[in-house]
Design a protein that fits this description.
Strand content of chain B: 5-15%
Distance between the termini of chain A: 51 Å
Shape of chain B: globular
Number of strands of chain A: 11
Helix content of chain B: 40-55%
Shape of chain A: globular
Radius of gyration of chain B: 21 Å
Distance between the termini of chain B: 19 Å
Order of helices and strands of chain A: EEEHEHEHEHEEEEHEH
Number of helices of chain A: 6
Radius of gyration of chain A: 21 Å
Number of helices of chain B: 11
Oligomer: heterodimer
């Protein structure tokens, strides 16, 4: 069972994240870049499936040269090989363009049974790309999975929402997006770290993946950032001295805010 | 000096410490709980195989990398570094001196952590004067009959292999020629005492081992020949001292990190307290000492990897790093003021953990003896 795991490098959630004033794109220099946590869970889910069903995990990452670090992390966790789609022409692509580009890159991998992705990256938060990839490739989309079971030629996922659990089944190949509850990703072992360097990473340009000029990139994006406003500085908040009636005061505050 | 892979290894341990250790360490430590889950994760990462190359292990690293991994573990909780230090020394002993049979028997399971190892040197009647030890192993037919008591044995209950320093010839002169290392496993005649109470270094057990007519097979002598034990253990302790120095470095780093953060967040007289010169000076001095300790450790570790004798360099690193860790921990208490004395903060733990490295793995008084003797023997300090 061969799996493509889509991963993304994002600005570290724990560092200061900024958008560039001139074009509204991410200011990559402003923060540390790390593999997205949901991508680690995606790789973990893929590894668990191949560990019980056999096959290979290929990680696919669209991103600048520096995303090689995210790829290496996924390989050190145990993925078998990687495809790095990297081209200046792809910079600033919106969700539709990204889905199209990823779909093109997925086609370069032979015999794919399953495509796994996170249900949303921690930077853009559009959370539409997995479903769009499925649409472009004309495959079933099983989104927000917290449990995946593969049975021969079909796959079943359990999706949990505020309104209850939904069980989805589709034939392979299919696209699955995983939720934060899917698993706890493993830490790379030292053996995995040492082995990662020797694993094959295929470098793809836009042209290699058959992405035409005008199909990707900021200039032809369907969505446009019209303005960027930095988040306001943290306000001082309200201090409530506890004179034996702290509990009542907190309750009164919450009532005033219409929170209770 | 670290390869790309080794830097990633150190970073991976640092990430693990931040995510898994720091959030739980205070509760585990105060309750004296054995960190079973953390130790299992350490095994999965490969911490127990760091010193073990193929064909037995699969991810050995350089001594500088090993030192920095140890420091990262200790930055989270010194006891975690204590749960793998003796293990590495025994692994190095087996690699350097073990027979092929001994290596094949122990190293594969030690590399995964399935078998953990510890060493037994100190006796209730004497720690520093190793040659005066009274534990004996007398040949009796095709086995040894072992009698005596060892104390302060870390991880004693959970170690399946104990490298026991003992006398196979108590009458030998000079005395050290009668010393051997026996590779001992738990069995009849070996009793492990209850955990010894300690100031710090909680969570992992330190125990007394009592041997009463314990029988070890004749093939249990490390390397096969009697009388080599003292020289073998002196080589092993080079690793041990670099390891203990690295533990001190980790404690000092943790104490400094907390002090720096607190000094930038806490305000007094209208400014963050680091802007008060007295507090700023603590930070400057602590960071300078830590940087110097780190370089001394890496210097000793590089010399170890070059194959040269490094007991003096390892001794210097251990002496300096442990002394400054205590100072940095105390200064972190000062920076935190009353909170530094509170058990709701971590700095009181650093203050309790730091003294172990001063008295452990050869007291600092003994380190000074080793350094002085080597200085005279080598004709002074190398300036190249």
């Amino acid at each position: 069972m061969n799996i493509v795991a889509l991963i993304k490098q994002v600005p570290d959630t724990y560092s200061e994240r900024k958008l560039r004033a001139e074009d509204g794109l991410l200011d990559r220099a402003a923060s540390d870049s790390v593999i997205d946590e949901i991508s680690e869970r995606t790789v973990e889910a893929a590894l668990q499936l191949t560990e019980s069903h056999g096959g290979e995990v290929t990680v696919l990452c669209m991103g600048p040269g520096s995303a090689a670090d995210a790829i290496r992390k996924a390989l050190s966790m145990g993925a078998d090989k990687a495809v790095h789609l990297s081209d200046d022409a792809l910079a600033g692509s919106d969700a539709v363009q990204t889905a199209h580009a990823l779909a093109q890159a997925i086609k370069t991998v032979d015999g794919v049974d399953l495509i796994l992705a996170g249900n949303g990256a921690s930077d853009g938060r559009v959370s539409a790309v997995p479903a769009m990839v499925a649409d472009v490739l004309d495959l079933p989309a099983l989104t927000h999975a917290r449990e995946i079971t593969v049975d021969g030629t079909s796959v079943t996922v359990r999706r949990e929402t505020d309104r209850g659990a939904v069980v989805l089944t589709a034939g392979l190949p299919a696209v699955i997006s995983v939720s934060e509850k899917i698993n706890e990703p493993r830490y790379p072992s030292f053996k995995g770290i040492m082995a990662a360097k020797k694993k094959p990473v295929t470098q793809l340009t836009a042209a290699d993946a058959g992405i035409e000029a005008g199909e990707a990139g900021l200039a032809s994006a369907l969505t446009t950032v019209t303005s960027v406003t930095p988040k306001p500085p943290k306000s001082a908040g309200e201090k409530v001295p506890d004179e034996g009636d702290g509990g009542s005061k907190i309750a009164a505050y919450l009532v005033a805010q219409r929170l209770i | 000096m670290l390869s790309d892979e080794e830097q990633i290894v150190v970073q991976a341990v640092a990430d693990w410490v931040d995510r898994e250790v720091r959030p739980v360490v205070r509760d585990l430590e105060h309750a004296g709980t054995y960190p079973g889950k953390l130790i299992e994760q350490m095994k999965e990462m490969g911490i127990y195989g760091l010193a073990i190359p193929g064909p037995w292990g699969d991810a050995p690293v350089s001594m500088p990398c090993y030192a920095l991994v140890t420091a990262e573990l200790s930055r989270g909780w010194m006891s975690l570094a204590g749960a793998m230090g003796g293990h590495t020394v025994v692994a190095k002993l087996l690699l350097a001196f073990g027979t092929a049979e001994q290596q094949d028997r122990y190293l594969p399971k030690m590399a995964t952590g399935e078998t953990r190892a510890t060493m037994a040197l100190t006796e209730p009647g004497g720690g520093s004067d190793l040659q005066a030890m009274t534990t004996t192993a007398r040949r009796d037919g095709d086995s040894y009959l072992v009698n005596g008591t060892k104390t302060w044995i870390s991880n004693a209950r959970r170690s399946g292999l104990i490298a026991l320093l003992c006398k196979t010839d108590p009458d030998a002169r000079p005395r050290h020629t009668g010393v051997s290392i026996l590779l001992v496993e738990h069995g009849p005649g070996l009793t492990v005492s209850k955990d010894l109470p300690k100031l710090g270094y909680k969570g992992v057990e330190s125990c007394e081992l009592v041997f009463e007519d314990y029988r070890a097979p004749a093939g249990a002598v490390l390397g096969g020949a009697e009388g080599q034990g003292f020289a073998q253990m002196m080589k092993g302790l080079e690793t041990g001292r670099i390891q203990v120095a690295s533990r001190a470095l980790g404690v000092a780093q943790a104490a400094f990190d907390d002090a720096l953060r607190y000094a930038t967040e806490r305000e007094a007289f209208g400014v963050p307290i680091w802007k008060h010169q007295s507090i700023g000076n603590y930070l400057a001095d602590s960071a300078t000492k830590i940087t110097a300790a780190r370089q001394l450790i890496l210097h000793a570790a590089e010399r170890f990897d070059s194959g040269q004798r490094c007991d003096m360099e390892a001794g210097m690193a251990k002496l300096f790093a442990s002394e400054i860790a205590m100072q940095v921990a105390l200064d972190a208490v000062r920076v935190h003021g009353g909170y530094g004395y509170s058990t709701e903060y971590d700095v009181e733990r650093y203050f309790r953990d730091a003294p172990l490295m001063i008295v452990g793995e050869g007291t600092n008084e003994i380190q000074r003896n080793v350094i002085a003797a080597q200085l005279v023997k080598r004709g002074g300090l190398d300036r190249t």
